[in-house]
Amino acid sequence: MNALFFALIGLTIGSAALLHFDRMSPAAMYLVELESLLGIPLPATLAVLAVLTHMVGKKLNTRTHREPAQPKARGSVVSRSPAGGPSTAEAQDWLEGIKLSAAQLDLPNGARMVFDLSRPYPLSLMLEQAPSERSKRAITTVGAWLAGIPTPPRIRIHFNRCPTSGSPRHHQVAGALAKHLNRSDFKTIVDIDAVDVLFHHPDPRWMKSTP
Mapping DSSP to helix (H, G, I), strand (E, B) and coil, where does residue 179 land? Predict the structure, then answer.
C-alpha cells in the first residue's frame, strides 16, 4: 500500500506540473487530451486516489496490530485455546499435532522426545550420554517448542549416562527453559538421573487426557 500511495503522489505532482506549467510537450498535450476526455481534473483525481490508498493501508495495518498471529511450534497444528474442553475429534487433533511437532524437533545427537499419556509426565526428553552443552541445547529447543503448544502439567528430562557439570542439573534445566518460558510459570524437582518440570498453569485439555 505504501508503494502505491507514493506512486500516486508522484503521478499527481507530475501531472500537475505538465498540465499547469508545461502544456506544450507531447506528454503534456496527451494529458490535456486525456483530461478533456475524462471531464475531470486529472491531478485532483490522482490526489484523491492517493488519499484513499493511504486510508485503506492505515486500516489494514491497524487490524494487523490488533490481531497478531498466534505463534505455533514448527510442524504443529496446535494453538492455545480458552478452557472449556474440546470435543473428542478436537482432542485427537491437538494431540496428534503435538506428537507430529515433537517428532520434528531439531534435537542434537543423543536427544529424543517421548510422548506417553499413560505416565504422570506425558512428555519426556531422553538424553543419552550427552555432554552439558549438548544437553542444554536440547532443553532450550524443547523450551521453545513448549512455548508454542498447550502447556502440559509436567515434563521429565532423563539424563542417562550423561556427564555432570559444575551446577546442579535442576538449575541447568531451569536456566535453559527460561530462555523461552517465564521462570515463574514452572518449577524443577530433582530425581535420580532425572529432573521433573512442573507447570503451575497447565492447559485443561491435558487434564482430560492424562490419568
Answer: coil
